[in-house]
Amino acid sequence: MSLVDSLRSALGADSVRSGADIGARHQGDWLIKAGPDDIPLALALPRDTAQVSTVLRHCHEAGVPVVPQGGLTGLTGGAVPVRGAVLLSLERMRAIEEVDAIAGTITVQAGVPLQIVQEAADDAGLLFPLDIGGRGSCLIGGNLSTNAGGNRVLRYGMARELVLGIEAVLADGTVITSLNKMLKNNAAYDVKQLFIGSEGTLGVITRAVLRLFPKPVTTSTALCAFTEFDRIYDFLRRARAHLGGTLSAFETMWQPFYARAVEGRTQPLATDAIAYVLIESMGTDPARDGEHFGALIEKALEDGLVTDAVVAQSMKETKQLWDIRDASGELVQKLNPVGNYDVSIATGRIQAFVLELSSRLAARWPGAEAICFGHLADSNLHMFVKVDERPFPEHAIDEVVYGCVRDWQGSISAEHGIGLLKKDFLDYSRTPEEIALMKRVRLAMDPKGILNPGKIF
Ligand code: ZN
To answer: Cβ distance 114 to 144 under 8 Å?
Structure first.
């Protein structure tokens, strides 16, 4: 019997597709599509962990690669098909199994969309804080296997910090069930962390126990303008001290980003500053939070730290401010062709890095522009790089950007992973010893190398 036939007889005919029935949607992620030769063998759509295990056991015996797929909203090609692979989509595993309000946990299957996890937490009067632009389409299993970041990392951490338990299936079909609900569990290795952020190369996540938090009831938001970049660092320190644990966002937009983002929108502040910060605080005291937040902004204005500011007075104004930051998605379309980067640099050195990178780019491409924004407090810088050369010299720009990141001991991937897109540059941010250890772990867990081959390394 062929592999596809044995999968069909094990899972049911409607759960295994081949040829044109696989569908265009499974051929790539938001940014990267499979090449003409990367034709997958089949698409499997298991309904539970046992079926995931069956698919992996059959593929392992046959030595056929498996590419796990979630919502396909990634930006580095981690879920892109490889030639002859079985695509393993978790999208039918959509059960929310339990909300435990006392433990502060939610147990979910890997195919639940992020937004549905957020809503289930909200219905229970709690908060699941992971939040990224693709919330409606991305699946929680993908969020975990890529260790997603987003806008609230500053307060709640990356996806990794929000997980207490994991169930995952190894390359040979072995099911590792570790659905721990306890905050403290030091009984030897924390193996769940192996599956988080390993982009489907060490196992397929099938279920998870996630942490829930008290739901904030107030949101205070302001946009601040700065004419000296170093003042932003001072303002960040002051905001952390003043707001304590309630500081929930500190998004920074450099002038070239802000000026483009407000085109065709209400423009809350003039476009002549050096950079802008969207600051947000989420609290639990409706009587005092707004005033406390307002006092921070007022004092910063008084002291000349901030040159101009607007505090949102309604939900509508809050949304208007966030729309400017969230214009990154439309900007990347508008600027096309453009290099799109997600890197980390120690927070206090970010502006010096931006200046250095800009001068390196200009030396090679006169008129080159780095359009920067990002989660400054998380040390995470996003950049669009525009140059006039055609055809667009993407790889040459990568070399300049990642070369500069290497020289500044930064990371070539802050929150988007490595996938296919950044694998040539992994050694810019990881030592040979680190990479050798990663490969040994991979060899131990998947000796035949069937899980998502060609990704990361
Ligand atoms: Zn981001």
So the answer is: no
What's 153's domain CATH number? 3.30.465.10
Per-residue model confidence as pLDDT tens digits over 374-407: 999 999 999 999 999 999 999 999 999 999 999 9
Three-class SS state of 439: helix
> Using the 8-state DSSP alphabet, how is residue 411 labeled?
B
Give the number of C-alpha atoms closer than 13 A to the C-alpha of residue 278, restricted to the C-beta side: 26
Residue whose entry in the numeric block shows the structure tokens 């006392």: 102
Domain containing residue 25: CATH number: 3.30.43.10
Instruction: Find tokens 């709640």 and name the residue.
Output: 156
Per-residue pLDDT tens digits for 181-191: 999 999 999 99
* Co-location of 243 and 303 in the same domain: yes
Q: How far is C-alpha 162 from the chain's CA centre?
A: 13
Ligand 1: distance of its center to the CA of 347 in Å? 15
Ligand 1 centre to CA of 49 (Å) is 31
Q: Are residues 275 and 301 in the same domain?
A: yes
Cβ atoms within 10 Å of 296's Cβ, excluding its own: 22
Task: Tell me how many domains the chain contains.
Answer: 4
In this prediction the pTM is 0.95
Distance (Å) from CA 303 to ligand 1 centroid: 31
